[in-house]
Design a protein that fits this description.
- By secondary structure, the chain is an alpha/beta fold.
- It has 19 helices and 14 strands.
- Helix 4 crosses helix 17 and helix 17 packs antiparallel against helix 18.
- The longest helix is centred in the middle third of the chain and has 27 residues.
- The chain is globular, with a radius of gyration of 28 Å.
- The two termini are 33 Å apart.
- The protein binds one RNA strand through helix 2, helix 6, strand 8, strand 9 and strand 14.
RNA sequence: GCGCCUGUAGCUCAGACGGAUAGAGCAACUGCCUUCUAAGCAGUGGGUCAGGGGUUCGAAUCCCUUCAGGCGCGCCA
């Protein structure tokens, strides 16, 4: 739809010998009376050409070739050019959609570019919780969206398995295990205290018996830690699968990055570029050479690497793999890291515009309208697994995706569970299920959509509006992909579902007139194709029955 | 103190690179099931786009400033 208008515009602008930036600003106007598509291009050119926008719009409009797809071209308001399509264009477009399905809906804006998306990357020291879930939902949908927009996407999970957190995990399980066997080993001050630690200790006991009874942590710590760590990975993987997140292509281990000597060599590389210096017996990265407001320590006075040092190595590793775009999805509490990682990227000579951090804001979990403070250390948190049991994976994902990633989000357990029947996700899924039901019913009524369907039977305003709505879907995907904002799809889905519910209520699909019925069935099928496609990109299921 | 995010209807949030009369859902109120799924439909009310200033043909959108909330500012991870 947009493509066709854009082609005409390019021709007209060429004829006028003016160039403007691509892609064109072509939008769906707010009011239906303004036409089907609209462009403010003339207004943008007003400054450059030093002519009134309306005059420019007229010049452009007069040079637009009408190839039969446009019913009307109007200049309106301060200088918009509004386009209205002919019915025959709408019918033939719908026909193509029905025939080609998914491939008709795709714009190849990625052109095969390789994208790395790192997301979730929760510390492997316990089950995922609701905060991680938002990152998982956004990251997963973003990857799907980019993939469907012609990018080659790798999904990656970074494991912070080298630091003391994992050791602390092992120590916590060790302590509980010994306590279960009657030893008075004291629980580590800053150990993990969740119920799952007790469960792990019990499982360890069941599996190994009293093998480690009375042993010092020095002696059995490595065994227990790696045993627990592996189980945490299994747990996290299981939670992600249950949540409906597509498999990660790679799990990168911080420990392995160290083991390969990548940290040392990354810092050496920066040194050669002159961004590393020594001061106060520590080694620093000169991030102030870029946008950071202070330099950062990479090797501490005691000779240990900082956490930042391995981040440098990891991001160099990302660069070395030759991606066109690198995306990090982080919790918003890490926003202070953006400038220093950007500095690293720049220091390595990477074009900073190709590095994008998507901040996912905190989820403010409420219970009975009261904030519910979560702490993994203290063991008071709502796990993702609990959320899935309580609220459902689809609902949880959909709610996360009805907000911009960087907006704060209240997630009230009472509201979400109590009103689940009125949840927006059901509204959308219900439309899909309704259509499935109609399509299933049709053969019994002797009606079958298929070849030779006369789509020109669809003359009701609601039908034409629905067709147009379907045809704008590729624009929604394109905008969502270009801005890395999957939530736009969610809003489109609610609009489309709403239009369908209204249509369903006012028009009987399977009626006395078989020709009309066939046409309406085809329209329904078109709506279903788009609904299930968009739900699929969001990672939400599209049930046939509800 | 500095930095980042946020502030739009009673509540939760959309609002494309600055464009046309600022939108949706929920909640409230009123109607609609003998017909393909009522997890639905139709209607009503609801706004100083936090306040102030600026930029221009035009600002919820950009700039400055004030206020409010959240988060971050370690040779922690």
């Amino acid at each position: 739809m947009k493509r066709d208008v854009a082609a005409l515009l390019v021709e007209a602008l060429d004829a006028l010998h003016v160039s403007t930036r691509q892609p064109f600003e072509i939008e769906v106007p707010r009011e239906e009376s303004f036409g089907d598509l609209s462009t403010p291009v003339a207004m943008g050119l007003a400054k450059v050409l030093k002519k009134p926008p309306k005059k420019i719009a007229e010049d452009i409009a007069s040079r637009l070739k009408n190839s039969g797809i446009l019913e009307k071209i109007e200049i309106a308001g301060p200088g918009f050019i509004n386009f209205t399509f002919t019915k025959s264009y709408l019918y033939s477009s719908l026909e193509q959609l029905l025939r080609a399905e998914k491939s008709y809906l795709r714009e190849n804006i990625g052109e095969g570019k390789r994208v790395l998306v790192e997301f979730v990357s929760a510390n492997p020291t316990g089950p995922l919780h609701i905060g991680h879930a938002r990152g998982a939902a956004v990251g997963n949908a973003l990857c799907n969206l980019l993939e469907e927009s012609g990018f080659r996407v790798d999904r990656e999970y970074y494991l912070n398995d080298a630091g003391r957190q994992v050791k602390l995990l092992g120590l916590s399980v060790y302590a509980r295990y010994q306590q279960m066997l009657g030893s008075d080993v004291t629980f580590p001050e800053d150990g993990y205290r969740g119920q799952y630690i007790d469960d792990e200790a019990a499982a360890l006991l069941a599996e190994t018996g009293e093998r480690y009874k009375g042993a010092r942590f020095d002696a059995c710590g490595l065994d227990i830690t790696s045993w627990t760590y592996k189980r945490m990975l299994v747990l996290i993987g299981r939670d992600l699968r249950r949540f409906g997140v597509k498999e990660f292509d790679s799990w990168v281990s911080e420990k392995e990055i160290f083991a390969k000597g990548a940290v040392t060599s990354a810092i050496d590389a920066l040194k050669q570029k002159g961004f590393i210096y020594e001061h106060d017996h520590a080694v620093w990265f000169r991030s102030t050479a870029f946008k950071d407001d202070k330099d950062r320590v990479v090797i501490k006075r005691d000779g240990e690497y900082t956490y930042f040092a391995s981040d440098i190595a990891y991001h160099k590793n990302k660069l070395d793999r030759g991606y066109d775009i690198i995306i990090d999805v982080w919790g918003a509490d890490h926003h202070g890291y953006i400038s220093r990682i950007e500095s690293v990227m720049q220091a390595f000579g990477y074009d900073i515009t190709k590095f994008k951090v998507i901040l996912v804001q905190m989820v403010n979990l409420l219970k009975h309208g009261e904030p519910f403070q979560m702490s993994k250390r203290a063991g008071t948190f709502v796990t993702l697994s609990d959320m899935i049991n309580l609220v459902g994976a689809d609902t949880t994902k959909f709610i996360f995706l009805t907000r911009k990633a960087d907006s704060h989000l209240d997630f009230d357990l009472d509201v979400v569970t109590a009103t689940s029947a009125e949840n927006p996700v059901f509204y959308v899924q219900y439309a899909n299920a309704r259509i499935s039901s109609i399509l299933a019913n049709a053969p019994g009524q002797g009606i079958e959509a298929g070849h030779g369907t006369d789509l020109s039977q669809l003359t009701a305003p609601a039908e034409l509006s629905l067709i147009k709505k379907l045809l704008t879907y590729p624009m929604v995907l394109e905008n969502a992909a270009r801005s890395f904002e999957p939530h736009r799809i969610t809003f489109y889905l609610q609009e489309l579902a709403g239009m369908f519910h209204t249509y369903y209520h006012n028009h009987r699909v399977i009626g006395d007139d078989p020709v009309l019925s066939r046409a309406r069935l085809s329209l329904c099928r078109g709506v279903k194709i788009v609904l299930s496609d968009a739900l699929g990109i969001l990672g939400v299921s599209a049930p046939e029955k509800m």
